[in-house]
Amino acid sequence: MTELLIADDHPLFREALRGVVARTFPETVIYEADSFNSLHEMVEHHADADLLLLDLDMPGSSGFSALVHLRFSQPQLPIAIISAHEDPSVIRRAIDHGAIGFIPKSSSASVLANAIRQIIEGESWIPQDLSDVAGANDDELKIAERIKELTPHQFRVLQMLQSGLLNKQIAYELGVSEATIKAHMTHVLRKLGASNRTQAVLIASQLNIPENPDL
């Protein structure tokens, strides 16, 4: 039986995707997450799933940070990006950061089904030839290596920091003391090579995507 994870904050798209999967792989068990926090919990409970379909824009996370961290913390879990971002450079960067495939959200149901089937069978799938497309540069790859060093708790703190939350707000969201958050923050700054919160956000933002589509 195939186990598929879907991480996307748009309920209508998740419903459409479930329909495609149900018709193509009737024996598939599907688990869903609509935010970074629920994604984190889902992956912890289903780390041996056959495939994670990951959106690049979710509440609590954006860009390639979640992909980078998950590929390092759960190397056995294949991850394919399914996104409204269709710029070739975005697709190439996703592959450079460890995605096994990239499926545009504008794809037809038949293309979605074929792409998912091919990826589950262990092959890569991308919508176009990227041989002449510039991908992640050396600076971005170095930042990705630093992101990989963060523990899951430290990574969540960084994501909330990027969202503009203060230590007190992060502590409330995570249900821990402000002193614990300060300790996490110290490790985050050290591992990123940052001297303060603002610099940490600027460093991590190198894994962002310049413009967000409407979808």
How would you explain this protein's 3D organization?
With 215 residues, this protein is an alpha/beta fold. It folds into two domains: 3-120, Response regulator (Rossmann fold), CATH 3.40.50; 138-207, Winged helix-like DNA-binding domain superfamily/Winged helix DNA-binding domain (Arc Repressor Mutant, subunit A). It has helices at residues 11-24, 36-45, 65-73, 88-96, 109-120, 138-148, 152-162, 167-174, 178-192, 197-204; strands at 3-7, 29-33, 51-54, 57-58, 61-62, 79-83, 101-104. A five-stranded parallel beta sheet has the order 2-1-3-6-7, sandwiched between helices. Helix 9 crosses helix 10. The chain starts with a strand and ends in an 11-residue tail after the last helix.
User: How many individual β-strands?
Assistant: 7
The low-confidence parts are none
Largest sheet: 5 strands, parallel
Radius of gyration in whole Å, from Cα? Answer: 17 Å
Please estimate the helix content. 40-55%
Overall geometry: globular
Structural class: alpha/beta
Q: How many helical stretches? A: 10
What is the first-to-last residue Cα distance?
31 Å
The averaged pLDDT comes out at 91
The run of helices and strands is: EHEHEEEHEHEHHHHHH
Per CATH, the class of the largest domain reads Alpha Beta
Please state the second-level CATH architecture of the largest domain.
3-Layer(aba) Sandwich
Number of discrete domains: 2
Strand content: 5-15%
Record the strand order, biggest sheet: 2-1-3-6-7
CATH superfamily of the largest domain: Response regulator
- Within the CATH hierarchy, at the fold level, what is the topology of the largest domain? Rossmann fold
